[in-house]
Specification:
about 200 residues, alpha/beta, Glutaredoxin, 6 helices, TlpA disulfide reductase family protein, signal, Thioredoxin_domain
Length: about 200
């Protein structure tokens, strides 16, 4: 009797092992996130409900902290011409552009220059502070600690700059560095009611 029970148990165990071996393994890629849908998964949502910052549309509002620890909103500058620049201290084109932006600002104090540092991309928290001090930047430096404002403005390449008129409308988006003359040309044309083409 014991021999029969043992034999039956052995047969059942062998059958279970066989079924397990024949079972199709899970697709190793089934739970993987591909490069394409990984980007979708981590894409942050715009803070103001706007899907994208586009030319001809109102610039999405945001609030960030400046060098003094004060909270600055884009809407604080409604009624003024604004240059909104996205940068990082490790970015060579940003390094090349910043002295021109400082010279432009010194000659055009009526234009609000807001330089948003993509702090979440910096190698250390002191890097942007050292950069600002080294270059003697005196316009508003804002810190995007989590990258949410960069995402809101769809900033993929830096420097990226938005020219915003007194009504808060984006008149032009520029990807790449600019010199002082180009900035002045864009602003002059924008203030005349144009898109902002350089002279």
């Amino acid at each position: 009797m014991k021999k029969i029970v043992f034999l039956a148990a052995t047969v059942l165990l062998a059958a279970a092992i066989l079924l397990t071996a024949l079972k199709k393994p899970d697709d190793p890629d089934k739970n993987k996130t591909t490069g394409e849908n990984r980007q979708t998964a981590v894409k942050a949502q715009p803070l103001s409900g706007s899907a994208e910052a586009k030319e001809g549309e109102n610039a999405p509002d945001f609030a960030l902290t400046n060098l003094s620890g004060k909270t600055i909103k884009l809407s604080d500058f409604k009624g003024r011409t604004v240059i909104l620049n996205f940068w990082a201290s490790w970015c060579p084109p940003c390094k090349a552009e910043m002295p021109d932006m400082q010279r432009f600002y010194e000659k055009n104090p009526n234009v609000a220059v807001l330089a948003v540092n993509l702090t979440n991309t910096e190698t250390n928290e002191n890097a942007p502070l050292d950069f600002v001090k080294k270059n003697g930047l005196t316009f508003q430096i804002l810190f995007d600690m989590d990258g949410s404002v960069g995402t809101l403005y769809k900033t993929v390449t830096i420097p990226t700059t938005y020219f915003i008129n007194a009504e808060g409308t984006i008149t032009r988006k520029v990807i790449g560095p600019m010199d002082e003359k180009t900035m002045a040309g864009f602003v002059a044309e924008m203030q005349k009611g144009g898109k902002g083409k350089p002279e």
